[in-house]
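Workshop exercise sheet. Pairs work together: one partner reads the sequence aloud, the other fills in the structure field after running the prediction. Swap roles for the next sheet.
Pair: D.N. / O.F.
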Amino acid sequence: MFDKLIEKIKDASSKDFKVATEEICDFIDSMAEDNFKSIVKEIGTIPENIDHDSTEEKLYSKASDIVLARCFRSLGLAARALDERADSADILAESTSGYNYSLVADAKCFRLSRTAKNQKDFKVSNLSDWRGSENEYAVLVAPYFQYPQAESQIYSKALDNNVCLLSWEHISIMLEQNIKETNSLSLESLWNASQMIARDKTLSFANAKCCFLPKMDMYVAKKIGVSPSEYDTILKNYKNSIISRGKIEIDYWNGCIEEIKKYSRTKAIEELIKAKKLQEKINAISIYINKLSR
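Structure field:
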């Protein structure tokens, strides 16, 4: 089903962005629940066959917003993806079970080939600001295994600003276990997890990774009612899925290498000029100096 979503994105990329977004939204929201759950497992990893900084990549990002909004609805909240704006969160969700809270959320997806991620990629401080005074919580959803593995300011900022750091894997696990907020089950403590973690005075805010994600795992395991060892087994299965996905992405790039080897000298030169964006640089300089010469 994920492959069909990518095909839909590629087909829609030639259309007006708003029209393309509506088509992708209809596609995602109309699929059966089991098919949707399979999408959630994959959406955190951007396929390598989607060009960087392309319309396809922008549509993929929008698709991830739409997927996350439906995830919150599947978890029992009212939720929608917000219109494209640079100064707001991606999703707004609110409780419909009498708990009287709302949250903003931001969906993050990364390529497996992207290694240099920093705090700006996660926008924790921005997410806290986007919450405003009218929403109680702020939730970041990113690929579990692509959160920084060493010290990072995103953990201390999340604790300082009460931003919940969740993963697509956490969301997927809850959906697979059919977790849903009801009058007898509140998910509010999950969205408020950073505040609870911050109360632990033994935690070093500068190096919180060693505690942050394991504590989130513990909270999710408690919500779905499984032991830590059972939860570890579930999470290991997700890791194995990513390994399999990685092999597919490697095969894609190996295929690209083989195609490049077939290029003629002229074709190779043309592609190198295009890759370095040399003509674009020339055009930019020409426009600039033309303005000066008027």
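Discussion prompt: The radius of gyration is 21 Å. What would you look at next?
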